[in-house]
Every structure is written in structure tokens, then in C-alpha cells.
Design goal:
The complex is a heterodimer. By secondary structure, chain A is α+β, with helices and mostly antiparallel strands. Helices cover 30% and strands 43% of the residues of chain A. Chain A has 3 helices and 9 strands. The radius of gyration of chain A is 16 Å and the shape is elongated. Chain A starts with a strand and ends in a 5-residue tail after the last strand. Chain B is of the alpha+beta class. Chain B has one domain: Roll (Ubiquitin-like (UB roll)), CATH 3.10.20. Chain B has 2 helices and 5 strands; from the N terminus they run βαβαβββ. The termini of chain B are far apart. Classes of the chains: A alpha+beta, B alpha+beta. At the A-B interface, strand 4, helix 2, helix 3 and strand 8 of A face helix 1 of B.
């Protein structure tokens, strides 16, 4: 089962994880990426995520399909927020379930690494004294 | 004549001051020619040239791609989601 969501609203983790798991899966691995209050020596107040939504959904689906083709997993759930995300709030959740833990760890790692390379979403960090787009420093 | 829709994101949107605009070309043009035209209008685009990513109709491609009438071209800096 594959579920891909992009949303502006805060992520309700309990509600998302309540459905879609399988009794055959013994491992349910949840990665939560959160907005932290510091970046390269600066104090971060919040992050604004911009998204090319239709293309981002396509790329997220491709990544999930690639992961499903490589590892024997049950559920893959990916949720990415856009718009303003405050300190401590999840910006991304990746949940992967499988019979045994190894497949979930490998799949989850692949998914987050590919998201950071390919999915058209950009973060703008806001500081106490200004703001900066993050992708441009690459 | 071909007409394409250009979408800009993140710092490219800030530099050019729009997120979406139509462009027309007398004959088929490459993404590179589109970027050259954009750079003529907004010189600060040249600072980003080496890092830009290109998508045509929501699929990644490169600057040599020849554009067709009705294409949607997205130009943006490296992604930074997660």
C-alpha cells in the first residue's frame, strides 16, 4: 500500500498511522523530519516550504514505486508539508512497514535521500535577522 | 510560432518577480534560449545559471531540450525539501 500526501496543515501522525498497516508486518518504521531552531550558527524562527505540487507528487510517487520494487515492504506512507512550519513541528513523515526491520530501514533511508535530491520543494529559513533560500548554497 | 508557459520557484521567482508567465518564440527554441531571454530581462539570473534545474511538463530534463508549443517549463534552484 502506498500513500503520498502533500499538505499545508500540521501532520496528524496518530491518524495517519492508524490505517494501512498489515498483520503480516512485524516492523513499522517511522521517520519524522522536524524544523530545528538552529542552522549554520543562526537562530531559526521558522521555515517556509515552497512546493511545485503537481510535480512533487509525481516524484514522490516515483520514489515510493522505486522503493517498493527494491524492498519487500507493506505500507509506504510519505507526508510532506508546505507553507510555514514552526520550530519542532514535523515537516516530513516517512512510514515504512515490512515483515522484518531491515527492509524498512533500507527503504526509508532510500526514500528520504531521494526526496532531498529530486522532489521540487524548497525551504526558506527565517532567522531573527532575515531569511535565506537553502537550495542555492549548493 | 510557439507559446510556452514558464514557472519559476524559490530564488528564481524572487529574482524575476513572477511565478508564472507565457513566452512566445518565432521558431522552436531550446530551454537554453529561454534562459538567455530571461537573463536579458533579469540580469541577476546569470548568477544562478550553473545551479539551475529544468523540468518540462513536470519531468526533469536539460537545457538542450527543444520546446514545443504548449509546453510548461519549470526553472528552479536545487531542491531542499525534507
Amino acid at each position: 500500500m502506498k500513500q503520498i500526501i502533500t499538505q499545508k496543515e500540521p501532520i496528524n501522525l496518530d491518524a495517519l498511522l492508524a490505517h494501512g498497516d498489515s498483520p503480516s508486518d512485524g516492523a513499522d518504521l517511522v521517520f519524522i523530519g522536524k524544523v530545528r531552531n538552529h542552522s549554520r550558527g543562526k537562530t531559526v524562527t521558522h521555515i517556509d516550504y515552497e512546493i511545485y505540487d503537481t510535480m512533487a507528487l509525481k516524484e514522490l510517487n516515483k520514489i515510493a514505486d522505486e522503493a517498493l520494487a527494491q524492498w519487500d515492504t507493506g505500507r509506504i506512507l510519505i507526508v510532506h508539508r508546505f507553507g510555514r512550519v514552526n520550530i519542532g513541528e514535523p515537516s516530513i513523515v516517512i512510514a515504512v512497514s515490512s515483515s522484518h526491520r531491515d527492509e524498512s530501514y533500507r527503504s526509508s533511508r532510500y526514500i528520504i535521500d531521494e526526496i532531498k535530491k529530486r522532489v521540487p520543494i524548497w525551504k526558506k529559513e527565517f532567522y531573527s535577522d532575515g531569511s535565506e533560500w537553502i537550495g542555492d548554497r549548493n | 510560432m510557439i507559446k510556452i508557459r514558464l514557472k519559476l520557484f524559490a530564488s528564481m521567482k524572487d529574482i524575476c518577480g513572477f511565478s508564472e508567465k507565457d513566452f512566445s518564440f518565432e521558431k522552436p527554441a531550446s530551454v537554453n534560449e529561454l534562459i538567455d531571454e530571461l537573463t536579458g530581462l533579469y540580469p541577476a539570473v546569470s548568477e544562478k545559471k550553473g545551479i539551475l534545474l529544468i523540468a518540462v511538463n513536470e519531468e526533469y530534463t536539460d537545457v538542450d531540450t527543444i520546446l514545443k508549443d504548449g509546453d510548461t517549463v519549470a526553472i528552479f534552484p536545487p531542491v531542499s525539501g525534507g
